[in-house]
Amino acid sequence: MPESISLEKAEKILSEVHPNREFKLHLGANLKSLYELSEALDIMSEASFSHHVTKQKNDFASWIRDVIGDTKLAHHVDKMNKKKDISDAVKLRIKELERVSYHSMLGDELRAGAREFLAGVIVGFIVGVIVHVLVG
User: Fold this and answer.
1) 0.85 surpassed by pTM
2) Rounded distance, CA 10 to CA 101, Å?
3) CA–CA separation, 15 and 21 (whole Å)
4) Are 53 and 47 spatial neighbours (Cβ–Cβ below 8 Å)?
5) CB 70 within 8 A of CB 96
6) What is the rounded end-to-end Cα distance, in angstroms, of the chain?
7) Which of 104, 79, 114, 97 lies closest to 35 in space, CA to CA?
8) 31 pairs with which residues across the strands?
9) Domain boundaries, the chain
10) What is the pLDDT of residues 85-133, one digit of tens each?
11) Which residues of 104-133 are buried (b: 16+ CB within 10 A; e: fewer)?
């Protein structure tokens, strides 16, 4: 069964974290979001990756769970020990969350379009009645 996630939760997971909750890479920059984690994993050295992911710990999974707030992704990442696997999982999750945002936005646009169409029908009907009364 596909996961049901609210627009608010998806946007929160994709947003930047507070500066004091950033992920501090070993010998590198601080990461503020899943987007930045995804980019960092693509260019990170194996030595830096190995500092954060060992048999005893997975710093990325912990940060994703405890700071980002995405328990689903954290659960998957916690079982992984290869940089490419984690990178692929993060990219896939970002796409899933962006799809929630896109579908929500699309739904809002369709509802607004339906309201505008209905308003046009009503105005057209009223104008038609007035013209019929005045001409007929």
Assistant:
1) no
2) 7
3) 12
4) no
5) no
6) 60
7) 97
8) 23
9) 7-109
10) 999 999 999 999 998 876 555 455 555 565 666 667 787 778 777 877 8
11) eeeeeeeeeeeeeeeeeeeeeeeeeeeeee
